[in-house]
Amino acid sequence: MSAALTDSLAAALAARADLLKQLHAEDTDAYRLFHGSVEGHPGLTVDRYGDLLLVQSFHNPLDDAQLNAVEIFYAAALPELTPVYNDRSRANSRISNPLSGIELEHAMMPRICREFGVQYHIQGRHSGQDPWLFLDLRAGRRRVMQEAAGKSLLNLFAYTCGVGIAAAKAGSSFVMNVDFAETSLGVGKENARLNTLPHRPRFILSDVFPALRQLAGIGQGQMVRGKRMPPFPKLEPRQFDLVFLDPPRYAKSAFGVVDLIRDYPALFKPALLATAEGGSLICCNNVAEVPRDAWLDQLQRSARKAGREVREAEWIMPEADFPSTDGNPPLKMVLLRV
């Protein structure tokens, strides 16, 4: 088992040789080294973030021999990296393996990684579960940086604001990040301070629904069907040249339900209305079972119902460190010219 795992790690690293050369030339040191669902060990991922080697298991925990094999392989191949292992195979992907001593110190150490010259804070472990920068979204951040110069950007479900920081670094005229989690926006603010930016992005602590409805000009009532809504920040209607929409699979609040399988249009319509005529809307859907072409057709029909036309659609594919056996990766990203 351990020998087979080592062989898979070696094959994955060899397959990335050209990509890693390109990324290093682009001042990027954050990427996936092993994508186990495709490369021979389902549920295992190995990511590099700066000098951190983040090993995570999602289906079953690694046994001692397997973890030892992973650490020995990368100690030889990439000796400058410090390994941290998170077993996330239990319910809700919660980290379940305790660490102590020097291992815990390494896991909790604040670090910095780089992507296209943009710096981001990263830790192997923190108060949340997920890493502070999703690597499969790198292709989306790359596309945003290509589009952003001189344009306004609205970043929805911003998390730690990687898309917004990338846009600001690329010369966006105005950036607004919206997320309901204060801790995530706090990391985003630290990311902004870490970089030399032409202007400071705006950070809106809010459920996305009321923020987006106000920006779209739909409005958000304080009373809905006789029920008082939770407090939310007041925003003036505004349209953006570029809108980035990256919702979670499912979330429910007093303001609405995010459901990427059954009701993507509930978010798509107000996001579209917050996009200026002649602007662009990048939509993401991370649910593997949603067919790509059917989803795009749904977006186009929703746009027509809202009185807007999709003039052009461009698929943004995850990069080569996220291989797909059938050319249909779980994360779907599409840029719509509207």
Describe the structure concisely.
The chain is of the alpha/beta class. It has helices at 2-15, 17-25, 36-39, 64-77, 101-108, 138-147, 162-169, 182-194, 208-215, 265-273, 292-305; strands spanning 30-35, 44-49, 52-57, 82-87, 111-115, 118-122, 152-156, 174-179, 202-205, 223-224, 227-228, 240-245, 250-253, 256-259, 275-285, 312-316, 332-337. It is globular.
Assign the CATH superfamily of the largest domain: Vaccinia Virus protein VP39
- Flag low-confidence runs: none
* Main sheet specs: 7 strands, mixed
Please compute the radius of gyration using only Cα atoms: 20 Å
CATH topology of the largest domain: Rossmann fold
Number of domains: 2
- The 3D shape can be described as globular
Write the layout of secondary structure elements.
Layout: H1 2-15, H2 17-25, E1 30-35, H3 36-39, E2 44-49, E3 52-57, H4 64-77, E4 82-87, H5 101-108, E5 111-115, E6 118-122, H6 138-147, E7 152-156, H7 162-169, E8 174-179, H8 182-194, E9 202-205, H9 208-215, E10 223-224, E11 227-228, E12 240-245, E13 250-253, E14 256-259, H10 265-273, E15 275-285, H11 292-305, E16 312-316, E17 332-337
Parallel strand pairs: 3-4, 7-8, 7-12, 8-9, 12-15
Antiparallel strand pairs: 1-2, 2-3, 5-6, 10-11, 13-14, 15-17, 16-17
Helix pairs in contact: 1-4, 6-7, 9-10, 10-11
Characterization of this structure:
The chain is α/β, with parallel strands linked by helices and 338 residues long. It folds into two domains: 2-109, 2-Layer Sandwich (Transcription Regulator spoIIAA), CATH 3.30.750; 135-337, Rossmann fold (3-Layer(aba) Sandwich). Helices cover 33% and strands 26% of the residues. The chain contains eleven helices and 17 strands. The chain has helices at 2-15, 17-25, 36-39, 64-77, 101-108, 138-147, 162-169, 182-194, 208-215, 265-273, 292-305, and strands spanning 30-35, 44-49, 52-57, 82-87, 111-115, 118-122, 152-156, 174-179, 202-205, 223-224, 227-228, 240-245, 250-253, 256-259, 275-285, 312-316, 332-337. Strand 2 (44-49) and strand 3 (52-57) form a beta hairpin. The longest helix has 14 residues, at 2-15. The model has no long low-confidence stretch (mean pLDDT 97).
